[in-house]
Structures are given as C-alpha cells and as structure tokens.
Design brief:
Layout (H helix, E strand, L loop, with lengths): L3 H15 L4 H14 L3 E2 L11 E7 L2 E7 L9 E7 L4 E12 L2 E9 L12 E9 L7 E12 L27 E4 L6 H9 L7 E10 L4 E3 L5 E4 L2 H19 L7 E7 L16 H12 L4 H9 L2 E5 L2 E2 L22 E3 L10 H14 L4 E3 L11 H9 L2 E6 L1 E3 L6 E4 L2 H14 L2
Parallel strand pairs: 1-2, 4-13, 4-14, 14-18, 15-19, 16-17
Antiparallel strand pairs: 2-3, 3-13, 5-6, 6-9, 7-8, 7-10, 11-12, 12-20, 16-18, 19-20
Helix pairs in contact: 2-4, 4-9, 7-9
Amino acid sequence: MTPAPHRSHTDDLLSFIAASPSPYHVVASAAQRLEKAGFRELRGTDDWSGATGGLFVSRAGALIAWYVPEDAPAHTPFRIVGTHTDSPNLRIKPAPDTGTSGWRQVGVEIYGGVPLNTWLDRDLGISGRLALRGPDGVPRNRLVQIDEPLLRVPQLAIHLDRSVNEGVALDRQRHIAPIWALGEPREGELLRRVATAAGEDPADVLGWDLMLHDIQPPGYLGVDREFVVASRLDNQVSVHAGVTALVDAATGATQPAFIPVLAAFDHEEVGSGSETGAQSPLLERILSRSVAARGGSDEDWSRALSGAFCVSADMAHAVHPNYSERHDPDHRPLPNGGPTIKVNVNQRYATDSTGIAMISAAAERAGAPWQPFVSNNAMPCGTSIGPLTAARLGVTTVDVGVPGLSMHSARELCGVRDPGHLTAILTTIMVGD
C-alpha cells in the first residue's frame, strides 16, 4: 500500500482540492492555511512600514505571500515560487437562463483549453463568487460552492451519431449548454438558486463569476493506490506545494536565508493577461513595496532582484502509454519518478543550465528525485508563468512540474509520491540551506 508519509501529504492535498473548486476558493484555502501558521493579510490601503514575519496580499483569484525574517536587510534576495490558481472549465454566461425543446439549460462559455468530451455525462455543481450590494454602496464578495448534482452535459447516444468514435469534434458553440430541468427557461432562475445557496438575497446580487465543477471527490487509483485522481490537479498540486513549503520555511527551526515568496496568479490558462495574471505588475509592485516598507532604497530593490531565483511550478506531461509517439523518445517522465525540470530552447519554458543546476542541487539536498522533460520537436510546446516572470522581473527562473496524465481533463492523474517530492524541493529552495 501507499507509504504513510506520501499518503499523509496527498490526503492533505485532496482536502485542499475538494475545498477549492474555483480560483477564489483556492485563494481562500491558501489564506486560511497561512493565517493558521501566523501569517497576516495586508491590504493595499494599509501602512506596510516595518512589516516582518509572514504576510500576504489577496486579490480575487490571486495571492502573493512572503516571509520576512527579523532583521533581514532590505536588499535580502527573494526565493519565489510561481503557480496559478485557475483550471480549464465551463463558466456561466452573464445571461445564463436558456433552453430548447422543452429543456431548461444554462449557458456556459469555454474557459481555457478544455477537452470537452471529458465534461460529458458528469454530475456538475456550481462554484465561484457573487458580487453583492454592500454598505455605503461598496460591493462585497461572497464565495459560493454548491457540491450538488445540479447540471449535466448529456452526450448524444451512439445510435444517433455512429461516427462518435471516429474523432468527430464536439461543436463548441451549440452543444455544451448543460441541462438542469424540464420546461421553458425562467429568467433569473439560476441566480436565485445560487444566491439562496449562499444565504443571500437574490436582489442584492450585482454581478458574479460562476463556473461549473465536477462534484466527484478526489481520491486514489491503482492496485497499490499509487496514483492520485482529481479535478484541477493542474495547478492546485503546485499551489498546495507552494503554500506548504512557505509555511515550512517560515516555521522551521532554521530561519530562511532569503525572503521566501509564493506567487499564485489567476488566468494562466488563458494567457495571464489580467490584473491578477503573471503578465500584470502585481508581483513586482508587492515585492518592491515590501522592500520600501523595510526602509529599502531603489538600490536595495535592485540588489534583491539581482540575487533572486524563481521556480515556476506547473503540471507536466507524463509519457502516455497509448500515445508514446507523441513524446520525445529520450524524455519520458513517469509518475512517482519525481518532479520534472522542463526545458524548451524556444523559451516556452524559462529554464537554462543555471536554473537546472540550482533546482537539481536543491533536489539532492531534499533527497527528492527529479526527471528531465522536453517536448517532442514535432509537437507544439505549452508554456507557463516562468517566461512571463523572468521577462517581467529579470530573474533566473526554472520551470518544474509534477508529471501527470489527462492534463486539462475534468479529472486528471498524477503519482502519489510526486506532490511531496515537489514540496520538499520548494521548501529547500525557500529556506536556502
């Protein structure tokens, strides 16, 4: 059976995933863990002067957290772990109530690179946030998570489409509105259902960011329970590892030699181009302000960046047993072989030899295995927040990731050992021992 240390870590990971069906819930789950470890939240309107210890800033689906040891000079370099909170899914349209042929349906829009067939015939709930009327005209937000089988995108029976197994693509525009009742569409019905579930008056709802999620709980798979299966492994495996590593670095017996930082961005799956994405100035502004809050100058800020190192942590592709020809013949990572170090000479990943040396040395100190990854030359390579962070901050960056199968599926798979190995490597990087 699965060794206890790895099972303990992944049990905690699965609890994190179950509580985090949307990017906003990911941030809330991370913040709750940080506050339990003694971190405190800072707001943009607060005075940050002299702030030390564990600190974090949250904004919608993004969170930046860092730990400042007592008496750390303002020019102390950063050790940054970059991740993302979003996952490909189906998101509810602004005018959601629709239907046809006697069925009441919900209008959805495709978010990110979704393998649509994986969302067919699944029991789906609703999650996200409501923007509500607040005191003095200032809106307030309320998270909502309905883990009930409310909706379903039904697949067409094979008797009505004999070509379904011949690779015919699902029509992205017409056939993804999930059903949830019989009858004609009722304007405002979905909003009333969601607001009531959140304990709010539907009349107070001014806007929303809502999405669908598979309600099947995460779990284990395999003869020896050696695999983790869950929704949103990409990229909650890395967020969970980053939060755990930051807490370990802040509360360990040895004070970090650097300023450990967790940057969990939103909208990576659609290009990171938002106020909370990796292309935004969010991380740069927060880190520079943290230097200034400790009395640092522009020179201190430049010194802190010059000595900085960033690990961009995102899921990676394990070799697929049924499509091994799609992978590079000499780079075929397997689950439970350790996280991958991802390389692409066209800079879809930011890794270079210096980054490889740093991360492999950290893995050796942590006692964790690692595997090299490069895409097949004939296949287009995905990207991550690594190149964006490297370009924005000008710091040495390396891309790493836990290898898995079914990436972007409604239900993904990875090895039970690898999340713990990733956490051990990130902790070593953050502490700097």
